[in-house]
Write a structure and sequence with these properties.
This protein is α/β, with parallel strands linked by helices. The protein has helices spanning 2-25, 89-100, 114-117, 141-150, 180-190, 204-210, and strands spanning 38-42, 45-49, 85-87, 106-110, 126-127, 155-157, 160-162, 168-172, 198-201.
């Protein structure tokens, strides 16, 4: 009788554990307490951004390393430059949502090289590698001028840049250990781009992936 009782107890405990595990997997995964998802446009297609609903999901292996060599993968400061606002995921989603609703004064920029962007990027962003604005990496003045006018909405008059109607640029790269968006931002500031029209998502793809948020291929 004692043995039967022990076995029955173990079976009951196992069943309870399985039920608890299943219940844990079934819990919803929202973005905030009142927001489950948003819909944005990416390359002319609607994409729903949400968090991975699997409670047992683990981070993308591309962002699992904790000890990348520094240099070059050194920890970036929280404040990158005077006037440049550092933002988080909720603020990034706010900009993406505004863009999807027709606000063309915002441009979200993935500053990474194409090989990194190919692993997945934030829906609604455009890939503008940091090398495209860096004369030290071969970017020429004509190409930079075309980016400023055609993508950023800046205008040139008598050799001077005018940024009154320029877009607010929301920049990101691989995260707090990545120097690609900081380099892009510093290049923009050197060209005279207004600091208050530059936003920096410091957490980048590292935090985006850690939170299980939707990514797309370029």
């Amino acid at each position: 009788m004692m043995r039967k009782a022990i076995v029955a107890g173990l079976v009951g405990a196992l069943a309870t554990g399985v039920a608890t595990f299943a219940a844990a997997e079934d819990k919803p995964v929202g973005i905030t307490g009142s927001l489950m998802s948003i819909e944005v446009m990416h390359n002319g297609q609607k994409v729903e951004i949400s968090r991975n609903a699997d409670n047992q999901n683990q981070v993308n292996p591309s962002f699992a390393l904790t000890s990348r060599p520094c240099p070059p993968f050194c920890i970036q400061p929280m404040s990158l430059a005077p006037g440049v606002e550092t933002i988080g995921e909720v603020e990034m989603l706010g900009y993406l949502d505004a863009m999807s609703k027709g606000d063309d004064s915002i441009l979200v920029i993935d500053s990474r090289t194409p090989d990194w962007a190919a692993r997945g990027m934030i829906p609604g962003a455009v890939n503008l590698p940091w090398t495209k604005l860096n004369t030290g990496k071969g970017a020429d003045p004509i190409s930079i001028s075309e980016i400023f006018t055609e993508q950023f909405g800046a205008t040139e008059f008598d050799g001077l840049w005018k940024f009154g109607n320029a877009k607010t640029l929301v920049m990101y790269c691989n995260g707090m250990w990545c120097g690609q968006s900081p380099t892009n931002i510093k290049s923009l500031l050197d060209f005279g781009y207004p600091a208050d029209k530059i936003k920096w998502y410091r957490g980048g793809m590292q935090n985006w992936e850690n939170l299980g948020l939707t990514t797309v291929k370029p």
